[in-house]
Write a structure and sequence with these properties.
The complex is a heterodimer of chains A (about 350) and B (about 1000). Chain A is α/β, with parallel strands linked by helices. Chain A contains 14 helices and seven strands. Chain A folds into three domains: about 180 residues, Rossmann fold; about 45 residues; about 100 residues, Zinc Finger, Delta Prime, domain 3. In chain A, strands 2-3-4-5-6-1-7 form a seven-stranded mixed beta sheet, with helices on both faces. Helix content of chain B is about 65%, strand content about 5%. Chain B has 42 helices and 13 strands. In chain B, the strands form four sheets. Chain B has a five-stranded parallel beta sheet with strand order 6-7-8-5-9, sandwiched between helices. A four-stranded parallel beta sheet of chain B has the order 2-1-3-4, with helices on both faces. The longest helix of chain B has about 35 residues. Chain B is extended and about 100 Å long. Chain A: InterPro entries: AAA+_ATPase, DNA_pol3_clamp-load_cplx_C, DNA_Rep/Repair_Clamp_Loader, P-loop_NTPase.
């Protein structure tokens, strides 16, 4: 079992990193007045862990008996019938899903599933009609229409179900939804916290940690606990016993992107752009999300870039990232960014070095 | 290059010899010659003509040659080739004779000759004018410049020549007239030499027109090139190929693709001695430079006013032969116009307009009038002629029916594009054979009931639908014994649709029972609606008539209507309407309302707007958009082109825009400008994508134009130019879009990932998101799955991996998914270097473990994206049982497990054969016997196995890269 999963806290009490948040949540639940919740924070900060622990706190061990389903919803969308397939993870008391997987039809999912849940409410042990919890991931990726329809259903069916929304950035969640939820910001764990966790794991696993090794991993992890634990284990698999200057292996795609970046820096020509396009296709085909590609590419480019240009390049990266979200064929936008960068960088090189 | 230049030089030498001869006397008496010209009689004219002809080189200023009739051109080479002056004079005499003879040839030629003469005048004046200002005809200058340099050498010859030449005094003045040109050119020659020559030298290295757009394209008389045939070769000095073609066509010339005897000129500047030029040399075709062409055109243009003057003066002055000839010319033109100019005719025409459209008026009256498709018409005729024998009389005799296979079909189906004469030929043929044609077309109701009318014809006329046909059918019925000749023409059968319920089916039924011939006509024979009908009909596919055929017919019509249109213009018209003669006639009639003389340009202009929509492939569209001339396309044309396929064209543009070197950037140091343009193009393409989302997702179809502008027109206009290859060995054609393929691979991988994600979720051990699974967890998963195989001993490693897999419910397919998703080009496959034996053991162990694991996952999950999932699952669940049977069967045999794995080994070993060959051999040696046995057993129990092995063997030749996959598929087969 991977350590990420093995050492994931199961209950709110076990949670160490965001202990205060966990305690508050526990109080909230035990007082039987759980509002809609919106967790937001960077990836790898423990949102999901909190949510799972919270659900367990609410419903006890039964929440762990989940089943995975691939459901098909038939939705009557006015003029036509829409069929949407989506994978859900559900127990008797909660349903978890990622509506943004349904693409631009996500609003039907949101409406339909909530109605569905409203139909069969579970009855708790005391014979009272309980409520279900709906966990929605990636709310920030929901389309605007879906968010609007969510707003209405949230109120309409609030007696039947509680929504727990998870997202990375609350800025892309509409004001209306944010105001209907209790917003919980989950910060990324600090390096110290990460080191503490890593040392805890090391102790449990009976590993010898060289001094400074854990902090190096923490540093590399970019304040993502998951990332830190994963690379910790990768190191373990790669080489044990640890050496203090052991290389922390990067992700495969990160390596590839840095290759692309150095390609771009080396030569700016149509030919190179064509080659870069081929490599970008590779990444996309391997299911690396385009946003992450663009972000990482910018990061790698900035590393080697002259300070003068950094501002401009960042501006363009943001510009094309925004457009990428509006568009559909992400390769076009990434390529446009690369072409723009090449153009800027080339003229910069020539104007400074002749 | 070198040889052609030599060839050109030779031509110069020859010509200069003669040119310089006349240069001398002319310089003294140019004015006289001009005056003499006017007064010169017929003979003088012809004499001048002949000398003039001699002066003209093959290479430049040779417009005179065109005007010659064929007999002259035949003799011309002799004249040209004659190196000796002594020989030249007889030739001259002969040419004189020729020219005398040519007086008797039809006046049209005389017109040309007069033109030539006038031409001389014009040239003199113009060249005099041009002494001060620089004329654009560098070529000419350079040629004559060279002539000067060689003058000393040739001067004696020329004197001799003159002596002989002056033998007839007639020649002299005209010779002067001719020579005027030469002299004037010679004076400029000094200046022209350097530049002209330099230019000449430079041409060899360039590919684009070197002086693109620098020269002023002359305007000439509209038919100054009439009757001439050109072939263009190589790149020209300032014109693009298309421009040159357009120019020639506009002036009445004809362009052909390859050299033949009929070719008058090979238009080329710095030809590289290709096939065309060599063939031209062979055939003695004259070479012409672009400047030469310009000269011809310009000459005709400048001459136009003086020509009139001279004509007038000539006509006025005396009944000189020229006057006579010009009169004749006029008469001829009048005849040509069919007196279109005369007011009486004019009136007649206007009267006619009111009565009939031309399409009706000039309908073919007999089958032979039909343009093109004569064989099909004949076939139709035969079929109809023998119909009665085949079906009515011989209907009872089944033998006859079957033997005659061409007539075996009772009905006939004519198909082809609109306006090519299907209906007309059907009607005409039936008319000719004395059939009475009943035409039913889309304007009539052709539903079931109507089809019954047809039945009525053949017997049961108990029908409610009526008048239209029943009259004639009644008539027919009464006269049946006498005239059993009726034919049903079902026009536009592919239009039989919603309104005509059961139309086609009933038509077929009536064909079966019909006692009269039925002719069906359709546009699209592959239409879905006609699929059943096709089986019952003899199919005749009409083709578009060629443009020559059409032009011929159109010119007949034009003549009859008193319209003056030259052939080239008509051919252009024929081409533009895409073979639709009806449309051509309509266009012609429309044009005739406003003008009585129709030129090439008029047709072009008129039809640009009303051009028939042509289907162009996305590739052609991209070629057009990115092509050199795309800068000249109008905006609406560009949009039309890019709209020809709204989905594919943008993708192709996106795929290929990198390859174009923009022609708008002439000097680009370091490619900055190109890079900048590319960035702008890329952004515009991205814009197009955003707009496309609006269109598709939010149904904002009004944005489709903006979309095509952003994604096609802007990138193309930024980057249009020459395509270049980026990779070695790439063909220089537009690639097909990679996006489609990549997108589908992405979709597939996404499904696989989803699959994997669901499995891992179902294990209840992890609750990570799909995205995180790929982005963050994958590396570690991969390490956990493959690392032990590399480092640990076989059994331990296999156990470890299988445990891990079963913990996370990772199936064999998921294992492959991991490999697939982590595959990057140029990266090594993590399974490389893993001993096949280990892999095989892994497969085996996994199967063992799955027996317990399987049920749990299969129960809970329906796999997303895979429609057949349940079946597959069930099959997967059932098959382990088979395995156990096999296992138990194997128990009796010694080392059955090992053999099984060995069997797997065999499949996979072969994938990286050679590497483990030795090991395998050892195994085989040791257990060869058992293997044989086992194979038999396996074949009995599982027929699929050999297939799997065969596949493994097949991939033996393939590289190791495929090894992982190969093994996967092999094992999959077995399962």
């Amino acid at each position: 079992m991977l350590w990420v999963d093995k050492y994931r806290p199961k209950t709110l009490d076990q949670i160490t990193v965001h202990e205060d948040v966990a305690q508050n949540l526990k109080k909230l639940v035990t007082e039987q007045d759980c509002p809609h919740l919106l967790f937001f924070g960077p990836s790898g900060s423990g949102k999901k862990t909190l949510v799972m622990a919270l659900i367990r706190q609410m419903f006890g061990a039964s929440a762990e008996k989940v089943k995975v389903e691939n459901k098909t919803w038939k939705v009557d969308a006015g003029t036509r019938n829409v069929e949407i397939e989506l994978t859900t993870i559900s127990s008797t008391n909660h349903v978890e899903l990622t509506p943004s997987d349904a693409g631009f039809q996500d609003r039907y999912i949101v409406q339909e599933i909530i109605k569905d849940m409203a139909k069969n409410r579970p009855i708790d042990s005391k014979g009272k009609r309980g409520h279900k919890v709906l966990v929605l991931n990636d709310v920030d990726k929901l389309s605007r229409e879906a968010q609007h329809s969510l707003r209405r259903t949230m109120e309409k069916y609030s007696s039947y179900c509680r929504l727990i929304l998870c997202c990375n950035s609350s800025s892309r969640v509409t004001e209306a939804i944010r105001s209907r939820c209790l917003n919980v910001r989950i910060n990324g764990p600090t390096d110290d916290e990460i080191v503490k966790v890593l040392e805890f794991i090391g102790k449990k696993e009976g590993l010898q940690l060289p001094s400074g090794f854990a902090s190096r991993i923490a540093e590399k992890s970019n304040r993502s606990l998951r990332r830190a634990i994963l690379s910790f284990e990768t190191c373990r698999v790669q080489q044990y016993p640890f050496v203090s200057n052991q290389a922390i292996p990067p992700m495969d795609w990160e390596e590839y992107i840095s290759e692309i970046a150095s390609d771009i820096m080396k030569e700016q020509s149509p030919k190179r752009l064509y080659q870069v396009r081929g490599k970008l296709y590779e990444l996309l085909v391997n299911c690396i999300p385009p946003e992450i590609i663009l972000k990482r590419l910018l990061y790698e480019l900035l590393k080697k870039l002259d300070a003068e240009l950094k501002h401009e390049v960042c501006h363009w990266a943001a510009y094309y990232e925004h457009r990428m979200r509006l568009g559909q064929k992400s390769i076009f936008h990434i390529e446009a960014f690369v072409a723009k960068f090449m153009s800027i960088y080339k003229s910069f090189l020539i104007s400074t070095f002749g | 290059m070198a040889d052609i230049r030599k060839w050109f030089m030779k031509a110069h030498d020859k010509d200069n010899g003669s040119a310089s001869k006349h240069a001398k006397p002319d310089s003294s008496t140019t004015e006289k010659s001009a005056a003499a010209e006017l007064q010169s009689g017929k003979a003088e004219l012809s004499g001048g003509e002949s000398t003039g002809r001699r002066i003209t080189s093959k290479y430049f200023a040779s417009e005179k040659q065109k005007s010659k009739d064929t007999t002259e051109t035949e003799e011309l080479p002799i004249k040209r080739k004659s190196p000796q002056d002594a020989k030249e004079s007889p030739a001259k005499r002969r040419s004189q004779k020729d020219s005398k003879e040519s007086l008797k040839v039809p006046p049209l030629q005389k017109l040309n000759k007069i033109d030539d003469n006038d031409d001389d005048d014009a040239v003199i004046s113009s060249s005099r004018k041009n002494l001060s200002d620089v004329t654009p005809n560098k070529k000419l200058k350079s040629g004559s410049g060279k002539g000067i340099t060689q003058k000393p050498v040739k001067i004696e010859e020329s004197d001799d020549e003159e002596a002989e030449g002056t033998e007839s005094s007639r020649k002299q003045p005209s010779g002067r007239g001719r020579g005027g040109r030469g002299s004037s050119a010679a004076t400029v020659g000094g200046r022209g030499r350097g530049g002209g020559r330099g230019g000449f030298m430079n041409f060899g290295e360039r590919k684009d027109p070197p002086h693109k757009g620098e020269k002023e394209v002359p305007e000439g008389a509209p038919d100054c090139l009439a009757g001439l045939t050109f072939v263009i070769s190589g790149t020209l000095d300032s014109l693009e190929r298309e421009e040159a073609e357009d120019l020639i066509k506009r002036h009445g010339g004809r362009i052909t693709g390859s050299i033949s005897k009929k070719t008058n000129y090979l238009l080329c500047d710095e030809d590289i001695g290709g096939r065309k030029s060599s063939k031209a040399k062979e055939l003695g075709t004259a070479f012409l430079t672009e400047d030469g062409l310009f000269d011809i055109i310009r000459a005709s243009g400048t001459k136009a006013p003086p020509r009139q003057d001279s004509k007038k003066s000539v006509v006025k002055s005396v009944e000189s032969p020229t006057g006579k000839s010009s009169l004749k010319v006029q008469a001829k033109t009048c005849k040509d116009l069919s007196a279109g100019a005369s007011p009486a005719k004019q009136k007649r025409r206007t009267v006619e307009f009111s009565s009939l459209t031309w399409t009706e008026k000039y309908k073919p009256k007999v089958p032979n009038d039909i343009i093109g498709n004569q064989s099909l018409v004949k076939q139709l005729h035969d079929w109809l002629a023998h119909w009665n024998e085949n079906f009515l009389d011989g209907g009872s005799k089944k033998k006859g029916k079957k033997l005659n296979d061409s007539g075996a079909k009772k009905a006939i189906l004519l198909c082809g594009g609109p306006g090519i004469g299907k209906t007309t030929s059907a009607k005409l043929v039936s008319q000719m054979l004395g059939y009475e044609a009943i035409e039913v077309n889309a304007s009539d109701n052709r539903g079931k009931s109507d089809a019954k009318i047809q039945k009525g014809i053949s017997g049961s006329n108990a029908n409610s639908i009526k008048e239209l046909i029943s009259n004639s059918s009644l008539h027919f019925r009464t006269d049946q014994p006498k005239h059993p000749k009726t034919v049903l023409i079902m026009d536009e059968v592919d239009g039989m649709s919603a309104g005509d319920r059961g139309g086609v089916a009933d038509l077929i039924a009536s064909i079966k029972s019909s006692k009269i011939p039925i002719i069906c006509i359709c546009n699209d024979r592959y239409s879905q609606k006609l699929k059943s009908l096709v089986n019952y009909c003899l199919i005749l596919s009409f083709r578009k008539p060629t443009k020559q055929q059409m032009a011929k017919r159109l010119s007949q019509v034009a003549n009859a209507e008193g319209l003056q249109v030259n052939e080239i213009a008509l051919e252009e018209l024929a081409e533009r309407v895409n073979g639709d003669i009806r449309m051509a006639l309509n266009q012609l009639q429309y044009l005739s309302l406003s003008m009585s003389v129709i030129k090439y340009d008029d047709i072009r202009q008129r039809l640009l707007g009303s051009m028939k929509d042509e289907d162009i492939s996305p590739f052609t569209a991209v070629d057009k958009l990115f092509g050199f001339n795309s800068g000249k396309l109008r905006m609406d044309e560009r949009i039309d082109i890019s709209m020809s396929d709204m989905d594919l064209v943008p993708l192709l543009i996106q795929e290929n825009y990198i390859n174009y070197r923009p022609s708008s950037v002439s000097k680009d140091d370091n490619g900055i400008k190109r890079m900048d343009l590319m960035a702008r193009a890329a952004e515009s393409i991205a814009d197009g994508d955003i707009i496309n989302v609006q269109i598709r997702r939010h149904r904002q179809w009004q944005l489709s134009q903006s979309s095509s502008i952003a994604s096609c027109v802007i990138p193309a206009s930024l980057l249009h130019g020459q395509r270049e290859t980026l990779e070695q060995g790439e063909r220089n054609f537009n690639r097909f879009s990679a996006w489609l393929g990549k997108n589908s691979t992405f979709g597939k991988n996404m499904r696989l990932l989803e699959d994997l994600h669901v499995h891992i979720l179902a294990s209840r051990e992890s609750c990570s998101r799909r995205e995180h699974l790929r982005v963050e967890n994958l590396t570690l998963f991969l390490k956990r799955l493959t690392e032990p195989l590399h480092t640990l001993p076989k059994d331990e490693a296999v156990k470890m991996v299988v445990d891990f897999m079963s913990l996370y419910s990772i199936s064999q397919e998921d294992f492959d998914t991991f490999m697939e998703l982590s595959k990057f080009q140029g990266r090594k496959n993590p399974l490389d270097g893993v001993a096949p034996a280990v892999k095989a053991a892994l497969t085996k162990a996994y199967k063992e473990a799955r027996k317990t694991q399987m049920v749990r996952t299969a129960d809970l999950i329906t796999l997303p994206g895979i429609k057949k999932a349940p079946k597959k699952r069930i099959a997967a669940m059932l098959e382990p049982a088979e395995d156990t049977i096999e296992g138990t069967g194997g128990d009796t045999l010694a080392e059955s497990d090992d053999e099984n794995s060995l069997d797997n080994d065999y499949a996979e070993d072969s994938t990286n054969a050679g590497k483990k060959l030795q090991l395998e051999l050892q195994n085989l040696k040791k257990e060869g016997m058992e293997v044989q046995l086992d194979l038999k057993g396996v074949e009995n129990s599982n027929a699929k196995k050999p297939g799997g092995r065969g596949r493994g063997g097949g991939s033996q030749t393939s590289e190791k890269k495929g090894g992982g996959r190969g093994s996967g598929s092999a094992t999959k087969r077995k399962r």
